[in-house]
Amino acid sequence: MLLLACALTAAATNAFPAPQSRAEATRALRSPDAVARAEALVWLGEHGGMADAALLHERLRDENAFVRGTAEQALWLVWTRSGDAAIDRLMLRGIDLMSAGDLTAAIATFGDIVKRKPGFAEGWNKRATAYFLAGEYEKSIADCAEVLKRNPLHFGALSGLGQIYVQLERYEDALGWFRKALDVNPNMVGVELNIRAIETRLARERANTI
CA torsion, points 88, 92, 98, 104, in degrees to nearest 10? Predict the structure, then answer.
């Protein structure tokens, strides 16, 4: 997000001053200037909470592609903050472990998070991701369900379920989840491509049965 903020500064010579408060950010979201709206999203991504998620979701359908991408990044930032510094440190450790390929340790770390703060949706989502990477698809499905109980508009979990069902070769189920993800966040190009690929596959299979 720091790089994004720098890009915003360079994006226009007459950029509006960056927001300094939630009130300023929410007002700037209604600005006719795309840079001002994006700066507002950066502020909310860095300082906002789940109470601001609805505002961020609205900007996923902004007329400006850069603003839409900024809204998506801001949502991920908000989702990843638990409000508890110790939990946030564990999240960073778990993410580092997962990135390094130590899935057993990552799963254990995210498991600790969901035990300590079960209401934190992103803890479940990160463990679902680690389970997916480990090939433990049923456990990943169960954790995605926990995410969606707490954050029904979590397009990452929705698209993640689509990916799981592709691996399980349950293509109709995968298609349903991918469509739900795209309905929440219409900017997910990869999901759109997956939908087209599955639709083509299913159409070909139906044609072969006639």
Answer: -60
